[in-house]
Amino acid sequence: ILLDKDGKRKHTRPTFSGQQIFALEKTFEQTKYLAGPERARLAYSLGMTESQVKVWFQNRRTKWRKKHAAEMATAKKKQDSETERLKGSSENEEEDDDYNKPLDPNSDDEKITQLLKKHKPGSGGLLLHPPEGEASV
C-alpha cells in the first residue's frame, strides 16, 4: 500500500497479466457489454474485482468507438472523393465528346482555342485533319 505525503492511501493503477488481457479481449470481441452475473463470473475466473472488469470494459468500449469513428470517417472521405471524381468525369463527358470529334477545317477558330484550353497537352492529343489534298506530317 502506497501513501501520499499526507499519509492517505494512494491509488495505484492495477496491472493485468497477459492472460487476463487476452481473456478480456476475447470476451469483448463476443460482447461489448457484460451483465452483472457475467461480469462477476469473468472477474472471479480471472482473479479480478468486478469493478476492475467493469472499468476495463468501459475503457475498451471508448477505445473501440474512437477507432470505429476514425474508420468510418476515412471510409466516408474515400467515398466522397470517389463520388466527386465520378461526378466530375460525367460533367466533362459532353466536353470530351466535342474534344474527340475530328475538327472541321472550316470550323470557328474560337471553338478550337476553347477546346485546347480545356484539355492538357499530351492527354491523348487533338487530331487535326489537314485540308484536302495536303499530306499529313
UniProtKB/TrEMBL annotation:
GO CC terms, sorted: nucleus
Q: Where in the cell is it found?
A: Nucleus
DNA-binding positions are 9-68
Q: Which keywords does this Swiss-Prot/TrEMBL entry list?
A: DNA-binding, Homeobox, Nucleus
Q: Which GO terms describe its molecular function?
A: DNA-binding transcription factor activity, RNA polymerase II-specific; RNA polymerase II cis-regulatory region sequence-specific DNA binding
Pfam families named in the record: Homeodomain (PF00046)
UniProt KW Ligase keyword: no
Task: Provide ranges: composition bias, Basic and acidic residues.
Answer: 77-90
In its UniProt entry, what is this protein called? Answer: NKX61 protein
Give me the gene this protein comes from.
Nkx61
Q: Which GO terms describe its biological process?
A: cell differentiation
Q: Which domain of life is it from?
A: Eukaryota
Spans annotated as Disordered: 67-137
| PANTHER family reported in the protein's UniProt record | HOMEOBOX PROTEIN NKX (PTHR24340), HOMEOBOX PROTEIN NKX-6.1 (PTHR24340:SF31)
Task: Specify the Homeobox domain's residue ranges.
Answer: 7-67
